[in-house]
Specification:
Elements lengths: L1 H8 L2 H12 L7 E4 L2 E4 L2 E3 L6 H11 L8 H11 E2 L3 H10 L2 H6 L20
Parallel strand pairs: 3-4
Antiparallel strand pairs: 1-2, 2-3
Helix pairs in contact: 4-5
Pfam families: Integrase_H2C2
Protein name: Integrase zinc-binding domain-containing protein
Length: 124
């Protein structure tokens, strides 16, 4: 939880949210503060600082626990525990840039069919 609290200090938007929750509890709907950790609908709010978001993605996608699951499954895993603004966009981008996923996952497109030879030109 210390890394989560540290991520709040390095992100000015989250630091402002934290001060609002301390000074006026209940001013932001869906947000709560307990033991120095911001929660959004009972999920841990992660600030932008100290690459904690990327570490969470790596733990839930790149590790054997995540198993390089697809975009939607990774998003659902992260969404069940954590929250940050534009989380879905970040996760979809990270999964689309995952090197292992690019090499292993198959593409769901039709086969181009048999090769057709080009006609032989009549003039040079």
């Amino acid at each position: 939880m210390k890394k989560v609290s540290l991520s709040y200090n390095l992100d000015p938007i989250t630091a402002q949210l934290l001060t609002e929750l301390i000074t006026l509890p209940g001013s932001k709907p869906h947000y709560s503060l307990s033991q120095g950790v911001i929660r959004y609908d009972h999920r841990i709010y992660v600030g932008k600082g100290n690459n904690l978001r990327l570490k969470i993605f790596q733990a839930l996608h790149l590790s054997p626990l995540g198993g390089h699951s697809g975009q939607q499954r990774t998003y659902c895993r992260v969404k069940g525990l954590f929250y940050w603004p534009n989380m879905k966009v970040d996760i979809l981008q990270w999964v689309s840039e995952c090197d292992t996923c690019q090499k292993i996952k198959i593409k769901n497109v039709l086969s181009p069919g048999l090769y057709q030879p080009l006609p032989i030109p009549e003039l040079p």
